[in-house]
Amino acid sequence: MTKRKPPSRHREREPGRSRDFPKDQGHRPHRTDAVRKPERPSAASGRGDRREEPPRAHSREHSREHAQPGGPYWLYGHHALTAALANPERKILRLAHAGADEVPTVEGHEWERVPRDILESWLPPGAVHQGLAARVHPLPDHGIEDVIAAAEGAEHARLMILDQVTDPQNVGAILRSAAAFGALAVILTERHAAPESGALAKAASGALEHVPLVRVANLARAIELLKKGGFWIAGLAAEAAQTLAEAKLTGKIGLALGAEGPGLRRLTREHCDLLVRLPTGGPIDHLNVSNAAAVALYELVRKSGD
Description:
The protein has 306 residues and is α/β, with parallel strands linked by helices. The protein is 25% helix and 16% strand.
């Protein structure tokens, strides 16, 4: 598929903190087969910042992470915690362990030892914490302009667009696949989407610290901005006429996935350049959204030759 030309004007970057995105590295083979521009599918084709209060000694009151959505929360588990402590953008408020034999050294912070039942009272029921937890602020916000700037000059780039995917386990798993296959970012809606949380970070196994989560108020508008920035947007839909492999997508690609069951919303479909599907056809002909994301990312990487 031919690449879109970058916009003639540079969009003014919105104010706010910005994180350096990973640069596109390695050999990027040129595409030899020209593909005609697809027709657009028709409709028928279808934090707030809160002040952290001083911790009460071993208090159980209002301590579980879901008590303050969008504010500070508890991060837990070895991989998630190790990645967070190594991230200079991650603001740490408190470190706690339940008798761990060895804890990492964190400059400017001391570990507090607490009884295991107290530590578990701060976390979601059944959380696999490995005796380690940290009270943290959410990561700084990023915008669509940051994604476009990160892909500037790259021949190949990939990103994920999630349309109202609310399960933190799924979003975390998609982040992990995005990190493994070199995606620039995961874009999701501000409302009706999984918030940054310990459960999401645990499922991401450290990827939350490496792949930016970009939250947008209007997904259709964000897609149009990505198109102007040179991205082709493919929506994953079971009823699509062609498979992702048959579409032969190369260049800068945004892959849109919807929630399990409803799938992509009508407006999101209308703003995609084309719809594609995975070649499933066994007794269970559909995949969990995080599994579908992993398979689709692999196909994009395979096609681009990365």
